[in-house]
Amino acid sequence: MIAHDALYIDGSWRPALGTGVIDVVNPADEQVIASVPAGSAEDVDAAVAAARAALPGWAAVPPARRGTYVAALRDQLVARRDEFVATMTAELGVPVGFARRVQTGIPIAVAGSYAELAATYAFEERIGNSAVHHEPVGVVGAITPWNYPLHQIVNKVAPALVAGCTIVLKPAEDTPLTAQLFAECVAAAELPAGVFNLVTGLGPVAGQALAEHPGVDLVSFTGSTDVGRRIGAIAGGAVKRVALELGGKSANVVLPGADLAKAVAANVADVCRNTGQSCNALTRLLVHTDQYEEAVSLAAAAVASFVPGDPTDPDVRVGPLVNAKQQARVRAYIDKGVEEGARLVTGGSAAPEGREKGYFVRPTVFADVTPEMTIAQEEIFGPVLSLIRYEDEDEAVRIANGTVYGLAAAVWAADGATAAAFARRLEAGQVEINGGGFNILAPFGGHKQSGIGRELGAHGLAEYLHTKSLQF
Ligand code: NAP
Ligand code: MG
After folding, report:
1. CA distance 24 to 27
2. Which of 44, 80, 398, 471 is the most core-located residue (most Cβ within 10 A)?
3. Phi/psi at 153 (5° precision)
4. pLDDT at residue 18 above 90?
5. Which of 200, 141, 189 lies closest to 165 in space, CA to CA?
6. Residue 223: nearest ligand to its CA?
7. pLDDT tens-digit profile of 192-205?
């Protein structure tokens, strides 16, 4: 058990002004592994002051040079990758294999992509008699969740740095150790003091203080739609920029003629990825009524190979959920599914065999799910797949679009063109076509209540810039 007592502000680790602490728990064995300061509103004040003071200097650094700092930061992430993997496995319970491949692999690649973009992005353009400058928005307040703790930090910090913004980060209370490790990387990359600041703390205290702070020009939030709504209201009241990456209830539509076995196997793997704790998880599988029972059997068989276990074991693909609250929430949704009349094909709300300790849940498949059921409408954030039947394409579109969310979707068809034609009718920010892979340069974000704004690539960089037109 390690007691960390400092926040990273203005280029150094300094004691928190408040006295509160947050215990960090290993969700696989429920042991307290560390504690970190619960930063107060005064700590947030100090961090925002440091970021404001650093802003003019950082904004004046040429973009290509800012890119070399981001490249140095990427190199630090690479050098400390094993520590990140071990830290995330301990505080999030993510299986080591996934922690290495995805939870650290993607942020390293994203940081690299922004280092490159810094040198090539058009920070100035000519429109008729105008020179249009794309300038940093200013001080960014970044509030991040626990499910992809490094990815969500890098998705905000790397483009903000390239844009010339300075940053105060408030990471999730469940995964502060990953954020501390990231701050150590920032220090080792020798970024100027005050450009990046870290305040660990509780959402309603440190998070709220950051969102409300008049010294913050842009709030970038990833997390639940409930909190996002509040942050959007605060930002609207202050007329400041806001970016919201929120929840989802994404549909995977298998059209007749698609490779059903492949589509179902990919969907089960997707829903078990990160133990179901992914905002873009494809949690609704829509299958034509003629193939429906075959899909149910395929899903049941596929889930059998996802057995929850010790996340430090390289062969384990499903770990525990992040905390007791999420475990209770996922179990309650499973009970609700049964209550509302869905058919429990496999899984259920009881603890997996031999996993009574730790926040484990059973990967679960529901059939006979109808579109209005709670489990078909609300984000569960656990390894729970709902199979829904449709009679024709129009009905499939209606069901797929029939939630408040619009983050992601997937379409499987006999060929890419058929799937892409169907994808045009979907209300979602990202659509996987016949299993198409994640692209770290493509804009990521939501339609409808899944959010406002985009992350990744050039679109993600544009979020941190505003324009100034000079007329000649
Ligand atoms: P959350 O409360 O929205 O947490 C996201 C971040 O916001 C955390 O840093 C959190 O701090 C902070 N926060 C909480 N209340 C705040 C406030 N009033 N003002 C400013 N910041 C605040 O999400 P959660 O409670 O961890 O998870 C609940 C549900 O959200 C999940 O079951 C899932 O459905 C959804 N979720 C979605 C995503 C996504 O990627 N879209 C990620 C995580 C969760 P604390 O850590 O201290 O709460
Ligand atoms: Mg919370």
Report:
1. 9
2. 44
3. -70, -50
4. no
5. 141
6. 1
7. 999 999 999 999 99
- Residue 409: pLDDT over 90: yes
Ligand 1 pocket, residue 212 CB under 6 Å: no
Distance in angstroms (rounded) separating the CA atoms of residues 225 and 141:
18
Q: How confident is the model over 276-322, as pLDDT tens digits?
A: 999 999 999 999 999 999 999 999 999 999 999 999 999 999 999 99
Using CA atoms, how far residue 7 sits from 168, 309, 387, in Å, is: 11, 34, 46
- Spacing of C-alpha 270 from chain mean position: 15
Query: Read out DSSP for 381-430?
Result: -SSEEEEEEESSHHHHHHHHT-SS--SEEEEE-SSHHHHHHHHTT---SE
User: Per-residue pLDDT for 214 more than 90?
Assistant: yes
Q: List domains and CATH numbers for the chain.
A: 2-246+450-471 (3.40.605.10), 251-439 (3.40.309.10)
- The pTM of this model reads 0.98
Question: By C-alpha distance, which of 164, 204, 183, 141 is closest to 64?
Answer: 164
Residue 1 has pLDDT above 90, yes or no: no
Q: Is 185 in the pocket of ligand 1 (CB under 6 A)?
A: no
* Residues 456 and 116 sit within 8 Å (Cβ to Cβ): no
Q: Identity (one letter) of the amino acid at 408?
A: A
The per-residue pLDDT for range 333-358, each reduced to its tens digit, is 999 999 999 999 999 999 999 999 99
Distance 130 CA to ligand 2 centre (A): 46
Query: How far apart are the CA of 119 and the centre of ligand 1, in A?
Result: 34
Q: Among the bound ligands, name the one nearest to the CA of residue 245.
A: 1
For 58, the token pair is: 């950082």
Rg (CA), the chain: 22
Can you tell me the distance from the alpha carbon of 182 to that of 76, in angstroms, rounded to the nearest whole number? Answer: 9
pLDDT of residue 434: 98
Q: Going by CA atoms, what residue is nearest to atom 13 of ligand 1? A: 203
Pairing between β-strand 430-433 and β-strand 284-288 as defined by DSSP bridges: unpaired
Q: What is the pLDDT of residue 461?
A: 98
- Angstrom CA distances, 81 to 86, 240, 277, stand at 9, 36, 22
pLDDT digits (tens, 9 = 90+) for 120-136: 999 999 999 999 999 99
Mutate to test the pocket of ligand 1, among 40, 227, 331, 380 (most ligand atoms within 8 A of CB): 227
The tokens describing 90, both together, are 């301990």
* Mean predicted lDDT score pLDDT of the chain: 98
Q: Which amino acid is at 135?
A: E
